[in-house]
Amino acid sequence: MTPSEGLLAGRLGGAVDAAVPGVSFEFFPPNTPEMELTLWKSVKRLEPLRPHFVSVTYGAGGGTRERTHNLVSRILKETHLVPAAHLTCVGASRAEVDRVAEDYWRAGVRHIVALRGDPPKGAARFEAHPQGYDNAAELVAGLKRIADFEVSVAAYPEVHTEAASPQADLDFLKRKVDAGASRAITQLFFDVDVYLRWLDRAHKAGVSIPIVPGIMPVTNFRGAVRFAEGCGATIPHWMSHLFDGLDKDPETRKLVGATIAAEQCRRLQDAGINEFHFYTLNRADLSYAICHILGLRAAPEAEPVAQAGAV
Ligand code: FAD
To answer: CA-CA 20 to 30 A from 97: which of 75, 117, 204, 291?
Structure first.
């Protein structure tokens, strides 16, 4: 490999030609006051990168409805960020889900990430509520009936574990687009070639909305393996090899994780993709560093957000 082919060469050598990437960040509602502090430090650190939006997950089984709502509201009130609220079909009737969406619209939230949702802990598979939405395509249509939300949906480069076939999975993604989704965000993946081949098939299947790659910078490799197994994502051998021997070395794991994710994004940029959704796990450092490597720079400090009721 010549220096000009290396990961950082284009960035540091002055030959930066790629346009500045568009990014978004995912957070989850914190469980404890300590986690809340970490989350808010991360939100504030990432805010000057001016992401297109930041999304807030909805716990498996719909268990974080209140906390998702509270975090989204706080982001809206206390930052300049555009929040996107995840919403699922799990454990609620259509009327209940619709009410949550109406509350969001009234609060000023205009972007929903519409998902069928994972089953609650202990349940083997998703069971729709008797009066509920059966799947994400139905939910997208329901949201669009309520208001003109911007709606993002999930997509699976390595095929959803419940899909009848890879083609059926893409046909279903197309159904979500036809129902009104205007962006898909992918499940995490690590093999760029797998994603690019799948993207080609998605385009051939008529999916013409942006399909934004979901990037997970990994620091806890064992946790990532468990998570990947659960959602049908493959951990390539080269990646296991890179983390081999680092179980007790979190500092090196961090550097390795940042390098892998930055290289993944750079390869995607080479293929013409320049929008990325980061699964931050509520930590800013790796996502921030990767964005920096990709050419993104913090905006000058913004005016503080006016607090409700302030004169
Ligand atoms: P759907 O799109 O409804 O279905 C998933 C797949 O099942 C389809 O692609 C299709 O292959 C098959 N399928 C479903 N219904 C039909 C049908 N009627 N006919 C034919 N095939 C069908 N989970 C949470 O609980 N909370 C979150 O906040 C959350 N955020 C996520 C964010 C992203 C970006 C991603 C990628 C996933 C997220 N998930 C979340 C996980 C998601 O809920 C699970 O992957 C879930 O199992 C499927 O959700 P979905 O919206 O893709 O479902």
So the answer is: 75
